[in-house]
Amino acid sequence: MRLSLPAWVPAEFRQPTSADVRAGVVHGLVSVPDGLAAGLLAGLNPVAGLYGYLFGTLAGALTTSSALMSVQATGAMAVIIADTPGLQDADAPQALATLTVLTGLIMLAAGLAKLGSLVRYVPNAVLAGFINAVAINIMLGQLAGITGYAGRGANRIVRSVDTLLNIGSFHWPTVLVAATTLVLILVLERTRLGALGLFVAVVLASAVVALLPGLDVPTMAGLAEIPQALPAPVLPSLVLIGNFLVPAASLALVGLVQGAAIGQSIPNPDGRYPDASGDFRGQGIANLVSGLLRGMPVGGSMSGTALVVAAGGRGRFANLTAAAVMLVAILALAPAFGRVAMPSLAALLVLIGARTLKPDQVLMVWRTGRTQATVMSTTFLLTLLVPMQYAVLAGVGISVVLFVARQSNRVTVKRWTFAPGAVLPTESEPPARLPRDEVVVLTAYGSLFFASAAVFESQLPAPGPESPGSVVVLRLRGKEELGSTFIKTITRYHDTLTAAGCLLVLSGLNERLLTQLRNTGALDHLGAENVFAARPNVGESLQAGLRRAREWQESQ
Question: Which domain holds residue 457?
Fold first, then answer.
């Protein structure tokens, strides 16, 4: 069955299926307690989480390249927000608007600059360490909510230990409500309710608390008031931009990486995978809308998108329906939100945290080698012990440093020897010392960038008193760029060879390398007659270099 809409509606929305409507209703109902829980996890007024879910879902459905991506607050982003100071002050609404809008601007700029492909440079080791530490942070952060005892300490680890050492101070009705909610979710999810079991479990547990006021269990009404209306817009503060630049960059990075994972795994209805840069732009716009309307930062939600797909959603109308359901819930049922039991939301977050754990990813990264294990472990510990916005950037920075260090040690120089009449060369290790009156052909494997210059230079044959009359032919075919450090290395080796009565010949250089040598003056220093450009026929440039080597030897 298809629902018909007017012709002026864009094609993507003109014929939504009833399956989209059903999926949207399920997603919208589940998003109400989920959004409140996200605001709670972020240490904000829970309504900020609900507004983030509403406006992120709505704007994301209209603007992302992915037709099925659900743009909502994620657990990882919520924990970063919880670690960001200044969001609980007197000017908290404006501070939150500044953080959310700034996050959106960074995402939007990345999308407009077509940087979607850059997410592949965030290594899996960083993500594995980060996501698993986030999962633990989510669970530890809810101990107070499910026990009724607020642990004391400088960070979540210390507060959790303090909580476990004070079991006698637990508020047992709170523990009972949290445990009941967990059991109900796990049981109801296995019935025909499916994902709606989460919504029903929170409603049932909260109803028990409302019917038994003697339990003295905290509810949403004691924490915040949910207005029965759409929020009034709030403008960000230019004065606060400096305070939130680092957390906004971390939020943008996490949101974009999570969104890219969705785009790479879930194709659009036409079978094609969405454009990552288009998803960047859509998530940026969603954050701008959410920030201006008092919502928290949002990004591509894997759990939300998976729910839409599992419930039968086929296109954008599913998320539009979900946003409409949330809107109706706010306008019609806001007073009932005050009766939601806080231990139920805490229990929901504990379950979300447990399901966020990825032990299989940890095991896979651990088995790939010491470098990857070091990156993952460092990111994991930093995420647990320091404010998360710094842990994210530090993890990426560490991975970049280790990547550069490892790549710099992967440069290998080999000698090519051509036997009489042979078409193909024989490859061997280059000599440590350059012999007399020989032509030594060398080829380099690996990336020739600044950090690998020393490793490359150490593998070149060293000339000495026994070396006059020899020529080193260095093959550089396939190298896209050298950089100033490598150009200095090559010119220095040329000077060393010249001083020993030898010659350096370069072959296989592309136009970019020739331009670099020309612009830096290195081409004149090396001698243009000793540098040969790459040619379409592989080996032709090398043969030209070998002829130059023989001509030079004959002239000596």
Answer: 412-555
